Amino acid sequence: MLMQRKNNLANDIGVIITSIFVAVLLVRTGTIENLVAQTNGLLFLQSFVAGLFFTSIFTTAPAIVALGSIVQGSSAIWPVAIWGALGALVGDLIIYRFSRDTLTSDIKALVSVHARKRLSHIFQLRLFRWFFALLGGLIIASPLPDELGLFLMGVTRVSKVTFVVVSYIFNFIGIVVIAMLALHI
């Protein structure tokens, strides 16, 4: 069992290293900006693609630049936020689906049994579940990596409906803030 946890942790580290490499490659080659530019002014598609990349720690910065450029070129805050948040929701669902169980189990393997029981009891309280869901949402809305917010929601095992609603609303808020800043720069 411990060997499997070590393998999972090694796999997670490998994925992170690969993601960093891919993100650097995407930034240096301008792939995200080119992908957005290839949509020939289809605002909803540009916003959705930029939103999709808004979710990961490794692609957040170029996505913020892309979202700001889209808003500056169109002055359409609300459509960009609506479609961008939808793209970000899809990105969050992908990350959540593939990382929730393995990341949670890896963290549990690192924490002692006694501490884990205490934390498990705390996370089962309804108040803390909502608190961590909202805290996760605030992290999703910020430029901080969504993975941290998704982790908080995954640890408390929020329902998928709650996850979708929180992710969409807070991604929407985050993109609106980016859009407003982009128009005032």
UniProtKB/TrEMBL annotation:
Domain of life: Bacteria
Keyword Transmembrane helix: yes
TM region(s), chain numbering: 12-30, 42-70, 76-98, 127-145, 165-183
Keywords, ordered alphabetically: Membrane, Transmembrane, Transmembrane helix
Name of the featured protein: Uncharacterized protein
